Amino acid sequence: MLPEYERVLIATDGSEGADAALHKAVAIAKRNHAELFILHVVDTRLFQSTSDPDVRYREAMRKIGDRVLAEAKEFAVSQGLTEVTTLMEVGTPKLLIADDIPKREEIDLIVMGAKGMGALERFFVGSVSENVVRYSKSDVLIVRKE
After folding, report:
1. Pairing between strand 7-11 and 109-113?
2. Sequence-distant (≥ 6) Cβ neighbours of residue 143 within 8 angstroms
3. What φ, ψ does residue 142 adopt, rounded to 5°?
4. What is the pTM of this model?
5. pLDDT, tens digit, 9 for 90 and up, residues 8-20
6. CA 109 to chain centre
7. Do residues 93 and 128 make contact, with C-beta atoms less than 8 angstroms apart?
8. How far apart are alpha carbons 69 and 124 in whole angstroms?
């Protein structure tokens, strides 16, 4: 018997991999009559101070996040989903996606793309998807770009 999911989280950064994951998450949510949560994390690893340049950069990243969330929600709704919630968080993606958001929103399934950052960054900070698979208490689906 296939598991039934009631609350599906898609973590997106607007990349091609995240778009592929969004399509799968929407299909899963439709098939399960589940609520879809679309999450974008403004990564605090990219700025460490509260200086003016960092604050301006953070605001620019929030605007990009707003666009990514709006486009993802528009797609989900166009596919017939009615229960779609968007979330934007500022912090460390590894912690927010693997633990904080799933606990707070009672997520059954986390869907995300396999890649969203470059090889050098992955070397220094590790893969977010790898961390989510390792530490999340929710089921996790990692989607590879076609």
Report:
1. parallel
2. 17, 20, 21, 24, 111, 112, 113, 114
3. -100, 125
4. 0.88
5. 999 999 988 899 9
6. 12
7. yes
8. 27
Three-state DSSP state, 110: strand
Residue 103 CB neighbour total at 10 angstroms: 12
In the chain, alpha helices (H):
16-32, 52-78, 93-95, 101-105, 119-125, 128-135
Closest Cα partner for 109 from 14, 2, 13? 2
Strand order in the sheet with 35-43: 84-91, 35-43, 7-11, 109-113, 139-143
Q: Does position 120 have pLDDT exceeding 90, yes or no? A: no
Q: What is the pLDDT of residues 76-87, one digit of tens each?
A: 999 999 999 999
